[in-house]
Amino acid sequence: MAGLTGRMSTVVKAKVSKLLDRAEDPAETLDYSYQKQVEQLQNVKKGIADVVTAKKRLQMQETSLQQAVVKLDTQARQALSSGQEDLARTALERKNVAQTELQSLDTQVNELEGQQEKLTESEQKLRAKIEAFRTKKEVIKAQYSAAEAQVRISEAATGVGEQMADVGLAMQRAVDKTENMRARADAVSELESAGAFEDLTALGSGEDDIDRQLKGLSSQSEVDDELAKMKGEIGTGGGERAQLGSQSEGTSPGEGAPASGSGAGEAQQAPADSGQS
Amino acid sequence: MIIRISGEDQYRLSDADGERLNGLETAVSAAVESHDEHAFAEAYRVLLDHVRTSGERVGDDEIENSDVILPPADTTLAEAAGEFTGEGLIPD
């Protein structure tokens, strides 16, 4: 009977009984246990706040990636209009990477949302247990002899301790997941800040490291398809369409790119969403 | 007996319902041993459902120690490997 009947509860029981052994006066132990519980409840609240912060961070990253998608789409069109197909392909490769990352961020934000809800529920349960303990400790103090009280305190304290340990475990799982997400998101931010999504025009003739990395990350078949589609829309080399290239940066890419269009819409909503949580 | 599903709630099960857990755990252990992610997910879902449906939820204001603590519902096969050892949930 190794695992399940609870490594966790065993640890909690050991800790609690150590605490009880030390105390001479049950009443004092009760008050001390309660005080500890209230302190730990604060830690739980802090843990939830950390999850919220992680979620907001990912949401900000989503917004900036959404902007990058719009920008790269525009750049690809401009490049294609002025006959620079290589540059257009590079822009679309980067757009493809950004879009893939956006999808993954979206999943992660939803996951964190779920964890936040669960933790909040757990916090409420823990709060209820601590409240029950507070009531119980007064009853124990009033009704039992020292020896009897010791046993009952132990039961009650380990019961609350078990709940506490369970919330702790849930928080640990949430933190672990968040860490993994952060590592991924940071890797993409690094590419972003290294200019991968920005200085397209500064791109030399040779591939740089970032370019090679992005090429590896992007789906070439999707990029091919999009390039072909864009060519069809723009009509490569067409005199009238070539003017697109001279339009100012940040111009809406138009209806030809539904993904980036909706992306821009979400970007505007994002701050409002995070404000609610 | 009191069973806790980690991350959820505590449930009060009759002895008979509690003992049924050991039977359900056999399927979970078998899936863990054969590294079958799909079978594990299904068997563990069945086990948790048994606890949730046959048990009575312990009130938030009741303070009870659990006899058995089950890992969270989203436990992965890899995480479960250390928990389900095939010895049975409830010791003889």
Listing every helix as H and every strand as E from the N terminus to the C terminus, the arrangement of chain B reads EEHHEEH
Computed Rg of chain A: 29 Å
Mean pLDDT of chain A: 71
Structure class of chain B: alpha+beta
Structural class of chain A: mainly alpha
**SS summary, helix count of chain A:** 7
As a percent range, the share of helical residues of chain A equals over 70%
Biggest sheet of chain B: strands, sense, closure?
A: 4 strands, mixed
Number of strands of chain B: 4
Q: How far is the first residue's CA from the last residue's CA of chain A?
A: 42 Å
SSE blueprint:
The complex is a heterodimer of chains A (277) and B (92).
Chain A lengths: L6 H16 L3 H56 L3 H59 L2 H48 L15 H9 L2 H15 L23 H19 L1
Helix pairs in contact in A: 1-4, 2-3, 2-4, 2-7, 3-4, 3-5, 3-6
Chain B lengths: L1 E4 L4 E3 L2 H19 L3 H18 L1 E2 L10 E3 L6 H4 L12
Parallel strand pairs in B: 1-4
Antiparallel strand pairs in B: 1-2, 2-3
Helix pairs in contact in B: 1-2
Describe this structure in words.
The complex is a heterodimer of chains A (277) and B (92). Chain A is mostly helical and 277 residues long. Chain A is built from seven helices and no strands. Chain A is rod-shaped and about 90 Å long. Chain B has 92 residues and is α+β, with helices and mostly antiparallel strands. Chain B is 45% helix and 13% strand. Chain B is built from three helices and four strands; from the N terminus they run ββααββα. A four-stranded mixed sheet of chain B has the order 3-2-1-4, covered by helices on one side. Classes of the chains: A mainly alpha (277), B alpha+beta (92). The interface between A and B is medium-sized, with 28 and 26 residues.
Describe the structure concisely.
The complex is a heterodimer of chains A (277) and B (92). Chain A is mainly alpha-helical and 277 residues long.
